[in-house]
Amino acid sequence: MSGAGQDLDAVRRTAAQGWVYGHPLLENYRTMYAQAVDAADPRYVGGFGRFRHYPQPSRPQNTDIVTPNNDTPYSWCWLDLRAEPWVVSVPAVDRYYVLPFHDLDTTYVGYIGARSTGQQPGHYLIAGPGWDGEVPAGIDGVLRADTQLLGCLGRTYLAGLSEKDVTELKAIQDQYRLHPLSAFTGATAPPPAPVPAWPRWREEDSDGIGFLAVLDFLLGFFPVLPSQQDLRERLAALGVDGTGTFDPAALDSQVRAAIEEGLAQGRAQVEDAKAHAEGSTGLFGTRDQLGDNYVARCVGADKGLYGLPEEEAWYGGWIADSAGHRPPNAATRDYTVHYRPDQLPKARFFWSATLYRLPERLLVDNPIDRYSIGDRTPGLVYDPDGGLTLHIQRDRPADPDQAANWLPAPDGPFTVITRVYGPDPAVLDGSWHLPDLTAGPDRG
């Protein structure tokens, strides 16, 4: 593409918007490539159309996604909807669970679970864009995707940490089933879709000019939506048209420089938004909920990839402590969080507070194997008035009551994410809020 006659400012604007629009697709592809494409990766789930369950709660070695949840062990799957729809079957479930299916850009298609569809058994059809077949008998609901590739990070509540608890959870997970529609109905299977020439995932492609080459490939599985047509046409003018043929080497030097500047501007816009995001409201949800707020989708993908919408689970945390230090740092001081009796998180299902080291946003190895505290945690010591004080610090507190409420922190910066599953209306309307993360004196 020649720079002669090109409006380079327009090229920069398109590249910036393209980065914000496309970043969640690449974050999703990073996970999908490891789990569904690269059979040599230890995270491989077995390809498309298979569940891989993890009945154990997350540990520091679990690095598939940032801010992994320690409350509800995961069930991963990926679906290719090009040849035909799939059917998801679930048993009767005696606890909280959710199977949330997301498009390539991490927007949710819909949910199967205790809150949305109930705890009874059922069969749910997941159809790709353009499918207009007849819904067969025996289907309890239909989820319609906007992209031809789909993912699911399912969660199922773990009642405790004993071997019996884990065994009971595994028995539920093993009953989540996937069937091609033809197998469900007993019809003849259609011809399989061709195997794509998957781009090998390279970390440098998440930010540099190679970003657009991967985005071009992924857009081939993402039919243009009416609300996105203008941006998709402008991206196509840069060669990012969904054919998977974008070639950075063919760019004029001026155009390439303008694109790289635009990509950097897009990253900076999202970094600024992330710095001011304290809760999860508006970051996760369906296309109807998020609309074309690409910045919010980006912030959600970076701060908590595959986070749930607020009606399913509310997320909140602290980007600074009570003294204004940003981020909190356990190498220099200890911290407390004090919940008054009327300030304990209000949840239909349960709540927890999970600690992550920064900048990786991963769990922290510690001597008591504790990564979160919440209303399920055994042995907590409540205050005489019924409130609860958490002690967040690097070293075990000397006081036994404080040690019972210790959430171990790394020797450095960290964040704590509170999750409220089935949040009370007071949580959603803002009349309830988190207490301060109170900083102790600097240890010097």
From TrEMBL:
Pfam families associated with the record: DUF1214, DUF1254
Domain of life: Bacteria
Organism: Streptacidiphilus jeojiensis
Name used for this protein in its record: DUF1254 domain-containing protein
Residue ranges annotated for the DUF1214 domain, each copy included: 320-424
InterPro entries registered for this protein in UniProt: DUF1214, DUF1214_C_sf, DUF1254, DUF1254_sf
Lineage: Bacteria, Bacillati, Actinomycetota, Actinomycetes, Kitasatosporales
Residue ranges annotated for the DUF1254 domain, each copy included: 49-180
